[in-house]
Structure formats: structure tokens, C-alpha cells
Queue: 2 jobs
Job 1
Amino acid sequence: MCGYNVESSSHIESKDITAQFEGALSSLGEVPMLKVYTSGSFLDVCEIPEDALDHILGYCSERGTRLLFESRPEFITDGKIKEVLERHEDLEIALGLESSNDLVLKYSINKGFERKDYDAASAILRENSVPIRTYVLLKPPFLTESEAIADSIATITHASRVSETVSLNPVNVQRGTVVERMWKRWSYRPPWLWSVLEVIKASAGQACRLLCEPTGGGRERGAHNCGRCDDVILSSIKAFSESQDLARLGWPECSCREVWSGAKEIEGYAMGGAGDLQKLTRRARD
Ligand SMILES: [Zn+2]
């Protein structure tokens, strides 16, 4: 489902990263916190060379800016974390767990690590008092809508034991991916916004903060409903993320809720995937 390998260039050098960082900062002004998203691993020297890392850590350390970056678990060792903390101690580190189910990690996501690797990395971060943000993926391919909801709820429960923040990320259809090929053949539908609401409702109130901002929400390639109720639900999800108040979540009256609920009931019996059912209910595609 991830299209970054298609979008990224292999000719980027350390000086390009530093220049991009400086360029972005010049338009920001003074801020208390920076998220530096590599959409990969900030601690992988093949992605962020040592001098670019030094530059960014030095900047944050001088200004007392909290730095959030993400990393795969294999780059999180006690030695590496201590080394980074020596240069800048106000960190938050994001881990893309996606699913706490090893079968989903292996067959739906091709993640290349198992839940125990996430557990080991999060233990190291906690020993070093680094707050953890965990990414959870809603509806990777080859899961039914119901399986996807259950998988995300179980994953958030697992992650919330060690995380300060959990970010729920519904899959969106990116260009050049297997998911896009399946989507074009009616074999994949991004999650319904009803499903996003259900996962949030079941998971809120655990120890951690729960955030959700669906990429491409309300559009055919992102988490969406029928087109009439999408905006109301999306703005309620935003209001919930900001307030953590479940009362802010919106459950508008809309007939598409019946379609969602019916699709969930029969999808387990459908041969070849319930995506086929979308032919009957889906809006015209761009
Ligand atoms: Zn609707």
C-alpha cells in the first residue's frame, strides 16, 4: 500500500536534506516542536547521513525544540538512542507497528519485522524515557472490513501499553502499489469512515492519546462513505483528535450506514473478496 518507493529519488545527498530542512524552517518561525518525517527511518544512515542528523539535532538542541521522528525498530538500539539523547534530549520517536498480528504484518503488509521487534524497540525507548508514538494501519489489503476493524482495535490495545500517542492511519490508495492494482479491479476498498468511527469509539479512553487524520479522507482513494456524510464525520474525527472527547465524534443519520453494516455481514461469505460488492454501491471513479 505504500507508494513512497515509487515517489522517492535515490540521488538525494546529505546537503539536499539539510537544504530542505533549512528551507522548511525559514517559513516556520519559532515553534516548540518539529516533526521531521522521512516516511522511513530517521536513524538509518542510508536515509539520513550522519552530518544531516547532526545538523537537525544541533538545531533542535540549540533552541530547545522537541523533535519527533520515525524509525523502524531495527535501528533502535540502546547505544544509538543514548548517542542521540546526548546530542538532544527532548525527543519523541514514532514506530510504525501497523498491526500487532504477525500474520497481517507478514502477508498483508510485507513489513519485514514482527511484533516482538516492536516490543523490543519500545522497551529500549521506555528505558531511556523517550515518549513513543505508534502508527496503526486500518485495513491493509486481504482483510475484510470486519477483520480490519478488529485488527486495529487489538493493535491499539497492544500499543497503548507503551505509547504516549497512537495514530490511527486508514489506508489510502497510492499510485504504483499493489493496493492500487487491486482497487482498480474492484478487489479493494479503502475503509469506510464508519469503520474509523468504530475503531476510535472502541479504543478511546485507554491510557494513551489517540489521533486520526485520514489521508485523502472523503475521497475515493481514501477512507470514505457515501459522499453525503463524509465531511461531517471527518470534521468530528478532527475535533476528537484535538480534544480526546468522545462526545465530539459525529454519528450522522445516513442511509449508507446500512450499506456498510450489510457489507460487513456478507463479506465473509463472498468469494474473491467483498470489494466486488462495491460495483453496486460505489460512486463513479475519477
Ligand atoms: Zn453516508
Job 2
Amino acid sequence: MKAKKLTRRQVIAATSAGVFGTMLGFPFRSFGINSKIQQKKLAINGGEKIHTGSWPGWPYWDQSAEQGILEMFRSGRWWRGNGEHVAEFEKRYAELMGAKRCLATASGTTALITALQVLGVDAGDEVLVSPYTFIATYNVIFSHKALPVFVDSDPETFLIDPKKIEGRITDRTVAIVPVHIYGLPVDMDSVNNVAKKHNLRVIEDACQAWLAEYRGKRTGTLGDLGCFSFQNSKHLAAGEGGAILGNDDFIMDRCHAYHNCGRPYGSMKRAPGNPHNGMNYRMQQSQALILMSQMNRIEKDNDVRLANALYLDKKLKEIPGIVPYKPAEGATRAVYHLYPFRYIKEEFNNVPKDKFLQALSAEGIPCSGGYGKQNKDGLIEEVLSSRGYMRLYSESRLKRWREENQLPGNDQLCDQAVTFYQSMLLGTRADMDDIVNAITRIYENRASLV
Ligand SMILES: Cc1ncc(COP(=O)(O)O)c(C=O)c1O
């Protein structure tokens, strides 16, 4: 039987009335339509919630790793200076990601600090950066006494808007930090072209983007250096941990030295009495062992996340006011550290996003509202008005920074973004149907939320 084409509104109406499956000749359950969707009362208003089971937990552990960790523990060889595991992890991670070299670090933050340092970001410099990100991305720029200059986001892609980069460059700009937020690849050709034209360094913040791909290549291998985080919530987790990927031995040797108290490494030579600048940002052996055990699963897990995310995209875009993210030009594989979409409240009787989030949580679907408008947060003003910054940057530069710190695309994104945690994407198809059904049910009953 040929299915009769329905308008989007008819689909929603039919879905909520529970007749869609039968109209098309499918059994009701084949669309994953939960019978609870027919209930008029939302869970937030006292109805029965849609998702009653649990969601996959995070992180997981692999029992096969326990013996190796115990042996390392008993050996007393806990740091990279007298153990082999950190170097082994570096080799395996570089291979997995398609990079020439990897340097493991204590965290994503210390990876970024090291990368900025070695690529020459210094006090008084300016660094272009995505505003829709975790706080660490711009905190590390402050740690070098440089000025983060936010480039507006494209609300459709959730990413830096490449068209707006060039307009923010000044004679003090030295680098760009594009962020593959939520594991969604940035349009790196556009970023690299601007960087090349203006002689800028590119440091990819790939802290949420393990195995994401841009034109078939892994994110974090496309700029001068790429930085990763292995903190507890991450797809590759070790409690804490980080890495830098790079293809240039000269640069990577200097990264190694800097993260290891300035001890010269590889091609570096130290004149007697002339030690190098450096910090202790080393990864420890236990972190490397945990990471190697997690590496056995990450590709398979990412496949499951991707399949579920694409399924959600397909289903959710049918609901008025729900807009899944649009991949940037050249993005070939996203890895969904969070699953993002935009909530257009005007389609939901102007129900505020916070109320929508509460209603969704009440249905048993954990969710969050994404990042806030961080370009306007108090931390930035605190730094810009500090004694050091007022010495390093002229009054007129700081005044202009404040005037230009208007990011309408990012404001819109922050107002509309909704996200689901990555571990939810490891759930079953029935779990994904619960998400779709919960949002459909809220849409159908939106009047009761006003
Ligand atoms: C986008 C981004 N950048 C940087 C970091 C910093 O990484 P870490 O927490 O490992 O220091 C994170 C970690 O959450 C992140 O998500």
C-alpha cells in the first residue's frame, strides 16, 4: 500500500492521537509510539512520565584493565618518568587519530596552555575564539595574559561563524582557537584559509571531539595543534587527562619540554646554564592505563551515538519548533559529546525554554540548556579590569573590545539551545522513541504549560 503523504502538522496530530501507525498500515509500535503519549496530562502536571526506565551510566570500566593497573600500582612506577604506559598511550592515540605525534598531558586545560605557549601566544596578544564553549577555552588565553576576542557563533551549526572571523583580526591577533563543541566539526578549511592569509596559528579545541571528522580527517589534526580532554564525562575518560596532537616535530618537541618542567626533548638543545621555561603538566601512568582500556570501545560507542543522533534528527525535525543542528560545510562525522537542538519557543505558545526543560525532565528525559552567554560573564570583566590587563592593553583597546562584544548569533543560540548527555545516546531505539514521544507530548500539551 502506498503511504498517503501527510503534512507535518497532520503527522504530529496523528501521532499524538495514536492513529498514525494504523493510517499507514503499520502496527502502532513500529513507530515507537508510546501509549502514554496519548495521555493529555504532562508529567510536570501530575501525569505519568514517558520514560520510566534508567539511562546508560557513565563512565564504564573494563575488567580486563584491572590487572595491569594493579601491577603498575604495586610496582611503584606511577609517573611517566619511570614507566612505559604514557608513551604507549601516546603512540596508540596518535595512530587512532591519524596524527604524527601525540603528547599526553594532565588535562585538556594544560594541553591548551601548552599549545598556546609553544605557538607563541604572549602577553598583549589577541586570540580569536568561539564563544559557545566551556570556560577553559578562554581561561587558557587569560593564563597567557592575552586577550580573547570572541567571534560570533552561527546558531544553526552551534559553531564559530567562519564569515565573521576576518573582521575581528587586529595587528595584535596571533592565533585562532576554533572549538568543535559537542564533537561537531568546525569548517576548518575556512578557518585555515583566514589563518594562512593573516599568518595566524590555529589551535583546535577538540576537547569534546575524539574521532569526529572533517572532509574525512579527524578533528584535532587539521590546525597547527589539536587539544583533547579525557575528563570523566568525556567519550574517552580517565577522570582527568588530556593530549595534544601535531605533525611538526619541532613544535611537538617543544610541547614535550614545556609540559615537563622545560627539560629539553628530541631536537632541543640546552646551552649550559640556560634552562627552558616549562611547567609540570605530565599525565600519570594510571591515567594512561585507564585510557587504553577505554580505547577498545570508543569507535563502537561513537557508531551507536551517531546512529541514535541521526534517528533523533529525523524524528525531532518533524516537531514544530524543534530544530536539530546543521552540520558545518565539510563536516563528515560528528561524535555528539552532547546531542544538540534548538527550541523555538514561539512554536510552543511562548513557553520559556526553562519551563520546557523542566517539563522534559519530568517526563524522565534528562536535558540541559547548553552554555550561557559567556562573553558577558563577570569573569571576563574581572580580568579586563585587573591591574595587569590595564597595563597591557590601552584604554581605547579595552573600550573597543567592550563595544564590539556583541554577538547576536551566539545570544540566539544560548537562548534556544537544548542538549542531551552523550551517554543517553548509548541507549536503545526505544529510549530514543521516548525522547521523541516526550517532546511530541509537550508540544501537543503546550497550552497547559503557559
Ligand atoms: C571545549 C572544552 N575545552 C577545554 C576543556 C578543558 O578540559 P579539562 O577539563 O580536561 O581541563 C573542556 C573540558 O570539559 C572542554 O569541554
